[in-house]
Amino acid sequence: MSHATLRLPAEWEPQSAVLIAWPHADTDWADRLAEVETTYVALAAAVTRFEPLIVVVADAELRAHVEGKLREAGVDLGRVRLIELPYDDTWLRDSGPITLKDDRGAFQLTDFRFTGWGGKFGAEQDDALVAGLVKAGVFGRAAHRRIDWALEGGGIESDGAGTVLTTWRCLVQRHPEQSREEMSAILRDGLHASRILWLDYGYLEGDDTDAHIDTLARFAPDGRIVFQACDDLDDAHHDELSRMAGELAALCMADGKPYELYPLPWAKPIVDEGRRLAASYANYLIVNGGVLVPAYGDPADDEAARIIGAAHPGREVVQVPCRPLIWQNGSLHCITMQLPAGIYG
């Protein structure tokens, strides 16, 4: 597999499956398990309309429970594969494989170190998840490259053509001893990227990832960027997100042209036991022929879905109720990882 031909596909390229892990009583979802399972069932129903779903379950008992839940909801179990492996939590965007592919159809599962977002949570089992999936034979003959450097999938966005977008706030927290130039070199090598674009601004209260890019700004086809805006002058996020919008407006594509920007509406504050939750519409998931969009029970839900649909033309837009997810500080994209076409099935 030559270095030159490997690349990180864009999320809108053809996929073979979506990977998730089911919440259970030994995860941080325990206190609200029934509530969050409603989101997981809705997500499974939505994904399997478009492509296969791989569900990691902790044991045989959970496997039977999940099968029952999905059957009850009318999910096509022929499009679901359940795999038993241990895990600490269910944020597979961050503990799952970052899959590179080459122009001959070979794949590399890039397995960065997962530290529980800089040591905030225990993550030993999650850090071993990619190796466990490889050992279970999920990915056929794909190469497996372990990189002993902390990076989460939610912390990077790829346009599929060599440009990666990320945030300084996140990576300087993970690697305070390294310069931006040093980190850019590691990202270029690990992701086979030609350009690393950095944002200095942008964050969400209630987000414990230290400003993952997938809560803030997302590449979309044909030189578009969809991003979370804030038009409420009195909101604590207004200044920071306005500065981020300015940064995005100043970015250029590889050919020197500016990106076409799609600002997303701002949900009204969602507060849970006195804590503001991070309700980002940018945390959506692209699937084959569709785009799954978080809904929070807010008046802005429909407008967010419309804008995301406009940025991804030709795809069916499906809203998935995600209010239960943000209680644990993430949303739809955070709990999923897409697998490029050809690696599975």
Secondary-structure topology with pairs:
Layout: E1 15-21, H1 33-50, E2 53-57, H2 60-72, E3 80-84, H3 92-95, E4 98-101, E5 107-113, H4 116-119, H5 124-127, H6 129-135, E6 143-150, E7 156-158, E8 163-167, H7 168-174, H8 180-191, E9 195-199, E10 217-220, E11 224-228, H9 238-250, E12 260-264, E13 271-272, E14 275-276, E15 285-287, E16 290-295, H10 301-311, E17 316-321, H11 323-326, E18 337-340
Parallel strand pairs: 1-2, 2-3, 5-6, 8-9, 11-12, 16-17
Antiparallel strand pairs: 1-18, 4-5, 7-8, 10-11, 13-14, 15-16
Protein name: Agmatine/peptidylarginine deiminase
Organism: Dyella marensis
Keywords: Hydrolase
Structure characterization notes:
It comes from Dyella marensis. Keywords: Hydrolase. One of its GO terms (biological process) is putrescine biosynthetic process. By secondary structure, the protein is α/β, with parallel strands linked by helices. The chain has one domain (3-340): L-arginine/glycine Amidinotransferase, Chain A. Helix content is 28%, strand content 25%. The protein has 11 helices and 18 strands. It has helices at 33-50, 60-72, 92-95, 116-119, 124-127, 129-135, 168-174, 180-191, 238-250, 301-311, 323-326, and strands at 15-21, 53-57, 80-84, 98-101, 107-113, 143-150, 156-158, 163-167, 195-199, 217-220, 224-228, 260-264, 271-272, 275-276, 285-287, 290-295, 316-321, 337-340. A 4-stranded mixed β-sheet has the order 3-2-1-18. A 3-stranded mixed β-sheet has the order 4-5-6, with helices on one face. The chain has a 3-stranded mixed β-sheet with strand order 7-8-9, with helices on both faces. Strand 11 (224-228), helix 9 (238-250) and strand 12 form a beta-alpha-beta unit. The longest helix is centred in the N-terminal third of the chain and has 18 residues, at 33-50. The two termini are 21 Å apart. The mean pLDDT is 95.
